[in-house]
Design brief:
With 218 residues, this protein is α/β, with parallel strands linked by helices. The chain is built from eight helices and eleven strands. Helix 1 links the parallel strand 1 and strand 2.
Amino acid sequence: MSSTKKIAVILSGCGVYDGAEIHESVLTMLAIAKQGAEYTLFAPDIEQHHVINHTNGDEMQEKRNVFIEAARIARGDIKPLSEYKAADFDALMLPGGFGAAKNLSSFAFEGNNCSVETETTRALQDTHASKKPIGALCISPAVVAKVIDNTKVTIGQDKSTADAIEAMGSTHELTNHGEVIIDELNKIATTPCYMLDANILQIEEGAYNVTKAILSMI
């Protein structure tokens, strides 16, 4: 029986403005591998909220699928989130990007009154109920806070986002680059990444540190 830790990672598309943040996604995968664990990538098989031209921020008149777009980051090796079973993994992680707030949830539009996508909700609830750790980067801690009550998380220093998290009934802690907030009771670890004005080295540090925290709670 292999003792290698197995981490499930939920992607929300491909690209910071309408999907998963690519640097955070890839560096999370690297951090997992560097620390001797294995990752399996998942994404919900749903339509994206919208498609953004990443050169100018304009909305484009086309439709894309979250699962198909996330497969770009996964090099095709990805499973629909409906197939995720908490029993098969030791932990769950969510990189950030606006996809977490637009596709996995409606947080970008509705703040603390948001809803969370069905399979994402199930994955988080089942993992939490199984007492297995959850890691979240960037904006995705807001999604975790919406699904799991009374959590302690960080998204860095953005006041409006922090206020929305507090309005959901969770506690927000201010952090800087590479710092991780660990909620020992709920087994949740979070780090701000690109919610701060960060560079790729700082993202690598954050991804490594939050992964290390998750692995320590398994």
